[in-house]
């Protein structure tokens, strides 16, 4: 029959084999891959639904009712809670203080994290980098309650470290109760919160700095650029996307500044350090007005989402223009 053989009628035809990709393994059917992906995502989706979506839906529902948190019956009032909250001067002042709190967090926590990451990246010894990176990240491991207690002792008017240092260096005129005066309570708590958070941003910035091509720094050094010039002209432009991400994270984290404030001042003195989160907590558990507390919390959440969307749109526009 020549070189090519013909298959007879009774001959067994070999079954077609699965298509093999360049890697050598046969590809799985799409349906099977979809089932595997669904099974892998199922635990996370269940946790998201139980601990995030369900409480959010419950909070939206309670914002349309008056409820003291104990009674078996809730009275529907629709948007009355939102009207009461947005006409309450205490809420408006709490919202303004929340904006100031975010500015403190952004400048100190994010700025401190960026500066610390830049300094650590200049260290040439690996063991020293690891040591200082661990020391800088250590405050972020501490709980907010511990940070509040430690910094409250540092701000103590008589035995505190800050007033003691000021007195020893001859600046005793600046000694005063930092947490006991309305003009300094919020900045003092903001500094403590920024100290606890800056290590988180430092790790993000350091990872991005170490991913920059060393040839860029070498070329800048050959051109005579010093450390500050390399940082300003090479490092900062390369961190544009990372900076955008960190700003969004800082904004979201700053809105959750309840733990440190409550541990140090509980919103005092005279509500001078009361944020929206503290205001909502006081409404719910102090005044028994869960509906107003839900309306205040959801109002803050909507503001956060809107600001984040506007920032992302501005960032995308800048990226497309650049």
From TrEMBL:
CDD domains: TM_PBP2. Gene3D superfamilies: MetI-like. It comes from the Bacteria. It is a multi-pass membrane protein. Pfam families: BPD_transp_1. InterPro entries: ABC_transporter_permease (IPR051393), MetI-like (IPR000515), MetI-like_sf (IPR035906). It is found in: Cell membrane. Residues 1-30 are annotated as: Disordered. The chain crosses the membrane at residues 35-57, 99-120, 132-151, 185-207, 238-264, 284-311. Residues 95-311 form the ABC transmembrane type-1 domain. Its main location: membrane. Keywords: Cell membrane, Membrane, Transmembrane, Transmembrane helix, Transport. Residues 8-27 have a biased composition (Low complexity). Belongs to the binding-protein-dependent transport system permease family. This is Carbohydrate ABC transporter permease.
């Amino acid at each position: 029959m020549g070189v090519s053989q013909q298959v007879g009628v009774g001959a067994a035809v070999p079954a077609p084999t699965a298509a093999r990709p360049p890697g050598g393994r046969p590809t799985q059917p799409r349906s099977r891959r979809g089932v595997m992906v669904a099974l892998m995502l199922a635990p996370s989706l269940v946790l998201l639904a139980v601990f995030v979506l369900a409480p959010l839906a419950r909070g939206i529902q309670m914002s349309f009712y008056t409820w003291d948190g104990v009674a078996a019956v809730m009275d529907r009032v629709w948007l009355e809670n939102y009207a009461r909250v947005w006409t309450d001067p205490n809420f408006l002042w709490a919202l303004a203080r929340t904006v100031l709190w975010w500015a403190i967090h952004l400048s100190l926590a994010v700025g401190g994290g960026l500066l610390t990451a830049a300094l650590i990246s200049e260290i040439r010894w690996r063991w020293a980098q690891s040591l200082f990176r661990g020391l800088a990240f250590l405050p972020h491991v501490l709980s907010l309650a511990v940070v509040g207690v430690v910094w409250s002792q540092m701000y103590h008017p008589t035995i505190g470290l800050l007033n003691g240092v000021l007195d020893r260096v001859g600046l005793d005129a600046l000694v005063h109760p930092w947490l006991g005066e309305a003009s300094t309570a919020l900045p003092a708590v903001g500094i403590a919160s920024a100290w606890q958070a800056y290590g988180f941003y430092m790790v993000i910035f350091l990872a991005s700095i170490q991913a920059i091509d060393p040839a860029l720094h070498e070329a800048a050094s050959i051109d005579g650029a010093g450390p500050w010039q390399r940082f300003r002209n090479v490092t900062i432009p390369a961190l544009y996307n990372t900076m955008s991400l960190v700003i969004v994270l800082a904004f979201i984290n700053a809105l959750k500044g309840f733990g440190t404030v409550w541990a140090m001042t509980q919103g005092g003195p005279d509500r001078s350090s009361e944020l929206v989160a503290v205001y909502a907590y006081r409404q719910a558990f102090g005044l028994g007005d869960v509906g107003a507390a839900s309306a205040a919390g959801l109002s803050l959440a909507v503001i956060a989402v809107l600001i984040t969307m506007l920032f992302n749109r501005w960032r995308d526009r800048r990226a497309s223009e650049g």
